[in-house]
Amino acid sequence: MQFGEVGRPAPNLFWHGTIFYRHKSLTPRGNNYMRLAYLIRLLLPIAALLLAVHSATAQGPWHYLNKADSPPGVIGMRQLQRGGPLPGYFQPVEVTGPKGSLVSVAAEGGFSDQQGDKLLAGMLIGQVYRLKVSNIELHEGQEVFPTIEVIDRLYPPPGQAFRFPIPVELTREEVEMALDGRYVLRVIYIEEPRTSLPFHNVPGKQRYLDIGVGEDAMETADRLGRPVAILRMGSRVPDETETDGQFLYHSPPVQLFEKPDVAPPRNAGLEEPLAAPNQLGRPSRNFSRVPESKLR
Questions:
Q1: Cα dihedral across residues 78, 79, 80, 83: positive or negative
Q2: Is the pTM of this model over 0.85?
Q3: pLDDT digits 0-9 by tens, 117-131
Q4: What does the pLDDT look like over 149-177, one tens digit per residue?
Q5: Element (H, E) at 93
Q6: How do 90-96 and 166-169 pair as beta strands?
């Protein structure tokens, strides 16, 4: 076998690595060795890629930092650390208790006036609010004190936040579970429109999903959409000797609202649309929205 000059190809030479071989000097056995070496060099990157993919899939599910069993307020504070238009925003939350019950929220070291089984309040992101549910049917004289932690906000049109509150329903079954000494935890989330199932929503009834033992509610809600609030409810009652406000989570600021009897128009508070630019030398125009009377 004759070698050509390293780094400078000679006539009728085949380049392999940094050495040149003359074609005439290659034997059939040498050709097989070269083909085998070329095939090995070609398959090695593919094998390395398959090994990396297998190693990544063998690691199991992702580790979620926010767990549903985290202490109240921890997840909300982590959300504030991410930045964005969250600090100082009062997110409207509509709480609905069992029929005939009275619902109130902690405010200024006590509880607000009980108006009925519905409560509409603006709550800060990252804070924990203590509620009080009394006058429960067949459980007169007993009370439950659930908490709500708002961990994210909605982005409604300007001036129409009351039309899009976070709904939190306290069912009679869940209230009775808390009275029996059991612990109820629920994560309220916004569905992902591209993966949500086509269910018919019944007015006044909130759909829910029960998860199995060992599953995490925050992880499940994160897969299904965007978690916005956490409801926790147990049998804990206030201690009369407690004076440091820990049971009420120091009564964070809250805004109490009254839901208007008549919903405002959809375009209330919105700016007038800008004139559309001309296209292809022809004037454009803005199309008006469909009247609300035709949507019902």
A1: positive
A2: no
A3: 999 999 999 999 999
A4: 999 999 988 778 888 899 999 999 999 99
A5: strand 90-96
A6: parallel
Cα(118)–Cα(138) distance, rounded to whole angstroms?
19
Which segments in the chain show pLDDT lower than 50? Answer: 1-26, 58
The residues spanned by each domain of the chain are 13-57, 74-257
Long-range Cβ contact pairs of 86-89 (< 8 A, separation 24 or more): 86/125, 86/126, 86/152, 86/153, 87/125, 87/126, 88/124, 89/124, 89/125, 89/153
Burial state string for 235-260 with b = 16 or more CB within 10 A and e = fewer than 16: eeeeeeeeeeeeebbebbebeebeee
d(CA 228, CA 76): 9
What's the token pair of residue 206? 């909130």
Q: Quick one: pLDDT at residue 183?
A: 93
245: left (phi over 0), alpha (psi -120 to 50) or beta: left
Name residue 7's amino acid. Answer: G
